[in-house]
Structure formats: C-alpha cells, structure tokens
Amino acid sequence: MLSSLLVANRGEIARRIIRTARHLQIRTIAVYSEADATLPFVSEADEAVLIGPANPAQSYRNTEAILAAAKSTGAEAIHPGYGFLSENAAFAATIQEHGLIWVGPGADAIDAMGDKINARNLMAAAGVPVAPGTTDPATTVEAAIEAAAAIGFPVMVKAAAGGGGMGMSVANDEAGLRTEFDKVRGFAERMFGDGSVLIERYFPRVRHIEVQILGLADGRVIALGERECSVQRRNQKLVEETPSPALTPQQRADLLAAAVRAGEAVGYRNAGTVECLFDPTSGQFFFLEMNTRLQVEHPVTEAVFGVDLVEEQLRIASGLAPTFDPDTLTVTGHAIEVRVNAEDPKRFMPGPGAITTWVEPTGEGVRVDSGYAAGTTVTPSYDSLMAKLIVHGADRADALAKLRTAVAGFEVVGPKVNLPFFTELLDNAEFISGDYDTAIVGRMR
C-alpha cells in the first residue's frame, strides 16, 4: 500500500478520500484555494497546501501548483476525486511522468473515452449497444441536418468533448436543430476548447442507468452492480439508487456484461462508470458514455456491496488485490442517495451563502458525506453540492421510509437548500412506484 496521498480536489469528495486514507494509515495532503481555507477537509488532512485563489483555473485545475504541492510534501500518489482534473488525460500522464502514482485509469483510457464519438465507435466495435448516431463529428449544421434525417427526429445534440450532463440539447425538427447546433457548438468551444458535435437519437421516455466497474490490478474488469440515476435537473443527477427498480434479472445481467466488455475494450484499470440509456418500452439499453473516475454517487454501491470503493482504488493503484472475492460478492438490500445542494428547490438555481446551522441526520442505515459545517460558507466559485445523504434499507420500501425521516432531520440554515424538493419527491406516486424516467422532475414542476 502506498504511504502518502495528495487529494487534488475539495469539499465532500476530498473529505471522503481523506477519511479512507487515514483509516489505512496513509499520510494525507490536502490542497485548497483561498475560498476553501476554513472547510473541514483542510483541517482533517495531515498536511494542507494553499495552491491559489478561488478561480479553479488558478487552483484546482492548476497542474503546476498541484505538482509543486506534491513535491514539497513528498506525496507518493495523487487522487483526483471527480470533476476538475479527474478526467484530464494530460494531467494523468504528467503525474506519472513525474514519478507519482495516479489513482485512476491510465491516460490512454481517459483519452479514449473522453471524446463521445470516439467512445461510441470503440464501444460499438466491442459489441456494446449504442444508440443510432453519428460516427464522425458533425462539423456543419448541414451535416447535422443530414445525419438527423437518417437517424430520425427528435435528436440529441451533444458536445463530443462534454460530460456531466453539460453541452446537451434536444432538437425536434430541422428548424430546432439549426438553433441548437449553433448553441451547443458555441458552448463546447467555450467550455471544452473543442466544438465537435455528436448527433444521436433522442428517446422521449428513457431511464439513465449506469454500471460501476473496477479494473483490478491483475487485469480483470468486474462490475459491481448498477445505479438508477433518472431523477435529474438540466441533465444532471439529483437522486441515485441501487438496485434499479426498472431491470429484470436478465436485463441486469446483459447490462453488467456489456459494461465489463466496455472496460476490457480500453484495458481499464481502477474505478470507472459505464453510463447507459435504458428504454423501458423496448427493454433495450444503449451506451451513453464512460466516466473514467469515481462517481459522486458511489456510496450507494458501497452500501449494498459492503465495500469501500476508495480503498479499492488505492489498492489497485498500489498493485494489490481487492479486499473481496469478486466471484462471491452479492447485493444486500437497497440504497438511495440524494444530493443536498445549495440551490432553491423549485427552479434549482444556485443560492450560496454562509451556513449558520448545519444538523446532519443520524440513525441505522443513514450516512452523510458532507463538505461543509456550521460556520463555513458556500461560495459561488464551485458546484452547489454541499453533501450527499445516503440511506441503506432491507428493501426499497424500507430505504424510502428511512430517507423520508433523514430528509426531515437534515437542517441547513443560511444558503438556499433543495431539501424540500426531496420531501416532495418522496411523496410522489410515480417515484414511489419505481416506474419513473428522466422527465420526472419536469412533470413535477
């Protein structure tokens, strides 16, 4: 096992990684921006290094500052968490070129899966189902219209280099496509420095289901179940649960097998997620993208399998076998996670501010991964995620009951908070039934 770890991230995920590393007696180093100086992850690490101002480009995305912090503290490895530089192939390669251990997949795998069109083509070649779409970037609106005519409207217009639900729009006809193509291309150029656009069939009623994979140190790729992620706003997740209430045993087996093939196709190592769209009408699933990192929603998988995915990441990076036998690992119960964000519960617009009260719920099967506490401030410089509330029950009904109690017991005063939305969702008949899709939030508004 490695001996020291620099966490190149902030907030709840930095705190989460530090917790496991300290349990394993690994010396931890936090890096932080001026805006985050008082957050819990900074004081909980063994060492902490200020790397720049609030602007992520000058701090959490500043490769030189992070490398300098690693060198000055004698860090042996770097864990990128999620977001920021976690899926930056050049950063991963640079870390390794400097003789440090990268806690994640190789730069080649990150690069291969970072472009949605390239990833689609790789997956199709590996026998993983993909939705009808373009195999090359649509470089002009005329090319996009021609592709859409072959695919059939409505279509999804996507930034090929995008991720996390960003750079996506729906076009219902040619006039809409002309408008959305220019919007998505412009957004992609500004945000990702790459204006390549993918045209793909849009499914009006679809579920978003993903598979947790681990590429082990011995070369095997295994799947640790699926996660249902269909409760979304602006194509970004709010609630995740496992197992998915949508799948039959055969559909689940087919989905997990396809995810393993996806990982094997790129020689995947460490933790990753294969995201898919599931059409409940036909029972078909289609590859969406691969996230070459640890996911925000990883705790629900940990809950039902009884594993620590961060520990497994560190073991893989150290060349060690997993703590469990992949051939006997089984699911126990049902887990649900909600993302507690500093945003209003109606329009989901960010509402940062100083936290005057922070009371986390407790109880059997209740877990809170938080990045903040009373006396700290949610700034507008970063994502609005403050904490993740996770519950684990004997079955879905038990998990829902625990979640209702936990949401009611979570008190945050100061910034805006979306907890009232979850109270509403947990009384929604569609969600309670388990027969919901990615449009559920829109139907509630």
Automatic annotation (TrEMBL):
Its EC number is 6.3.4.14. InterPro entries: ATP-grasp (IPR011761), BC-like_N (IPR005481), Biotin_carboxylase_complex (IPR050856), Biotin_carboxylation_dom (IPR011764), Biotin_COase_C (IPR005482), CPAse_ATP-bd (IPR005479), PreATP-grasp_dom_sf (IPR016185), Rudment_hybrid_motif (IPR011054). It is an enzyme of class 6 (ligase). Residues 1-445 form the Biotin carboxylation domain. Keywords: ATP-binding, Biotin, Ligase, Nucleotide-binding. Residues 120-318 form the ATP-grasp domain. PANTHER family: CARBOXYLASE:PYRUVATE/ACETYL-COA/PROPIONYL-COA CARBOXYLASE, METHYLCROTONOYL-COA CARBOXYLASE SUBUNIT ALPHA, MITOCHONDRIAL-RELATED. This is biotin carboxylase. It comes from Dactylosporangium fulvum. The lineage of its organism: Bacteria, Bacillati, Actinomycetota, Actinomycetes, Micromonosporales.
